């Protein structure tokens, strides 16, 4: 019994070693490692630029929703924001990518690469989530802060940006980190519109010699390493922003 | 200086202010007392429009802060269609009536029965718009001249004490940072907290926070200071230090409106004490008379409980 188990483990280890060597022979070739680097670069660009677009647009949308409801215009802005969130949170991101790439682009006669479409769609999609995250953050800041700012003579937007938002962002930093990490991982769907990301790069390596096991494992490792690094960075930022809480 | 004209404030169906008028002259120290829920904080917050009055007007040094309330302007009422209709009817009924008397009666009737509607004709609308244009000022500019101190301090927790004080002067009045800091330090020295300039508010006691909140408002060099129950959230032993800052401020001649439960402060500092109950000012008098010889039965009852 023990012998069979030993042979089994030995054989699978042996086959793993062979597979690893085949993978290694492939990856050291410039065509392949360049592809991985390009994929890694694109993944990070889509995630970070998307995050940035999402944050800025989300901030605007959340403020639209929270404008003091004493004017007609603020109700219009609020409705715009609600519709936006309903559309972009109500459909899967793959569907949004496909609609943008295969429907909207030809419809308006625009030529754009899958990569740029991906960046924009990730930004727009993330904005819908960011809007709600930021709204929660802004609501978590005591109303007295807004009143204190207004009583000093700041207008609504000045108070929002100088006093309320900095505190709101501190409160939602863990959630923002979550959103960034989600974006990094979700980039694996951009192959649907022909953009090269980490996933397509490793698929390419696997398909070159029909050896998928190690490439996909390596892909998982790279994703984990990226996310762990991000987690640490976010924690550092959080600690910095919490400086004012220390007693 | 501040002129509050017949303001009403409704929160949904709850009517908190029911026609409050008061005038505050330069250098006066008005103390507003009354049971909780009487509308005294709401009145104070209406003065700098943190709450918008439902009806009525608030004026600051000849500038209008709120929208026009037509019932306060007889000229506007006279231009309305309703007035015209009532005047004709009146004339047909009493052909030889005195015109002044007719005018007074019609205006009284319109005011009493709230007859003005939204559509009152072009002349009426133009009169309102002209009045508004002539007198209305931007509330944000006005608030720079009205300091406010809150019950819950409302210091900005993400900024240091120094940044709390200099934020508004540097950003709104464009005072150079160094100059603003010097001034802030001078103000902090006066209240004995200069060593706290670079700490965050979370490290301070309630009394220290409130004193710094007062300094933050003073840094804008306001013409009038509004205090919304400044000592109600403090430990009893910290009340004194905050009151002392307020008394010093009063001695320097600052115009102050103070909502408080500190009767000692009212007796010592006030030039006039207002008693509010159920959304109206029940009694207004200088402090000696006010406390020694209260007239309103509700005030007598209130004073017998708190003194």
Write a structural description.
The complex is a heterodimer of chains A (247) and B (307). Helices cover 84% and strands 0% of the residues of chain A. Chain A has 247 residues and is an all-alpha fold. Chain A has helices spanning 2-27, 30-66, 72-90, 93-108, 114-140, 143-152, 156-186, 198-209, 213-241. Chain A contains nine helices and no strands. Chain A is elongated, with a radius of gyration of 24 Å. The mean pLDDT of chain A is 90. In chain A, helix 1 packs across helix 8 (198-209) and helix 6 (143-152) packs across helix 7. Chain A has a single domain (29-246), classed as MetI-like fold (Orthogonal Bundle). Chain B is α/β, with parallel strands linked by helices and 307 residues long. A six-stranded mixed beta sheet of chain B has the order 6-7-8-3-9-10, with helices on both faces. The two termini of chain B are 31 Å apart. The model of chain B has no long low-confidence stretch (mean pLDDT 91). At the A-B interface, helix 6 and helix 7 of A face helix 6, strand 6, helix 7 and helix 9 of B.
């Amino acid at each position: 019994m023990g012998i069979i188990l030993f042979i089994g483990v030995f054989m699978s280890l042996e086959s793993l070693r062979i597979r690893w060597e085949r993978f290694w022979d492939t990856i050291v070739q410039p065509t392949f490692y360049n592809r991985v680097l390009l994929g890694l670069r694109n993944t990070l660009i889509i995630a970070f630029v998307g995050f940035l677009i999402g944050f800025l647009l989300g901030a605007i949308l959340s403020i639209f929703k929270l404008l003091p409801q004493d004017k007609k215009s603020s109700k219009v802005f609020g409705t715009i924001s609600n519709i936006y969130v309903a559309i972009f949170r109500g459909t899967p991101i793959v569907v949004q990518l496909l609609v943008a790439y295969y429907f909207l682009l030809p419809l308006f006669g625009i030529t754009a690469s899958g990569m740029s479409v991906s960046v924009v769609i990730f930004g727009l999609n993330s904005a819908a989530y960011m809007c709600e995250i930021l709204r929660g953050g802004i609501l978590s800041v005591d109303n007295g802060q807004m009143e204190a700012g207004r009583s000093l003579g700041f207008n609504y937007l000045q108070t929002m940006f100088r006093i309320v938002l900095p505190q709101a962002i501190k409160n939602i930093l863990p959630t923002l980190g979550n959103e960034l990490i989600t974006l990094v991982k979700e980039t694996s769907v951009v192959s649907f519109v022909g953009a090269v990301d980490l996933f397509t790069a490793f698929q390419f390596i696997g398909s070159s010699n029909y050896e998928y096991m190690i490439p996909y494992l390596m892909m998982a490792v790279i994703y984990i390493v990226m996310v762990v690094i991000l987690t640490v960075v976010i924690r550092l930022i959080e600690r910095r922003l919490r400086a004012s809480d220390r007693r | 200086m501040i002129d509050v004209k017949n303001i009403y404030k409704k929160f949904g169906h709850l009517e908190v202010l029911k026609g409050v008028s008061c005038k505050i002259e330069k250098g006066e120290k008005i103390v507003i007392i009354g049971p909780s829920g009487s509308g005294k904080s709401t009145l104070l917050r209406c003065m700098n429009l943190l709450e918008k009055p439902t009806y009525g007007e608030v004026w600051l040094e000849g500038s209008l802060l709120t929208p026009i309330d037509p019932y306060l302007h007889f000229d506007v009422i006279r231009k309305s269609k309703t007035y015209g209709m009532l005047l004709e009817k009146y004339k047909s009924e009493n052909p030889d009536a005195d015109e002044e008397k007719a005018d007074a009666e019609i205006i009284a009737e319109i005011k009493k029965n709230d007859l003005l509607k939204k559509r009152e004709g072009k002349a009426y609308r133009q009169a309102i718009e002209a009045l508004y244009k002539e007198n209305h000022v931007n509330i944000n500019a006005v608030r720079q001249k009205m300091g406010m101190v809150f019950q819950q301090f409302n210091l900005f927790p993400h900024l240091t004490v120094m940044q709390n004080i200099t934020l508004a002067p540097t950003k709104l009045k464009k005072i150079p940072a160094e100059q603003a800091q010097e001034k802030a330090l001078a103000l902090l020295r006066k209240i004995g907290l200069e060593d706290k300039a670079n700490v965050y508010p979370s490290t301070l006691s309630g009394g220290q926070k409130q004193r710094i909140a007062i300094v933050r408002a003073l840094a804008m060099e306001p013409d009038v200071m509004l205090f919304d129950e400044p000592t109600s959230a403090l430990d009893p032993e910290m009340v004194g230090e905050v009151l002392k800052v307020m008394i010093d401020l009063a001695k320097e001649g600052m115009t102050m409106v103070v909502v408080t439960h500190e009767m000692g402060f009212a007796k010592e500092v006030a030039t006039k004490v207002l008693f509010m109950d159920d959304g109206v000012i029940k009694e207004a008098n200088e402090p000696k008379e006010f406390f020694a010889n209260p007239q309103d039965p509700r005030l007598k009852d209130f004073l017998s409980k708190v003194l």
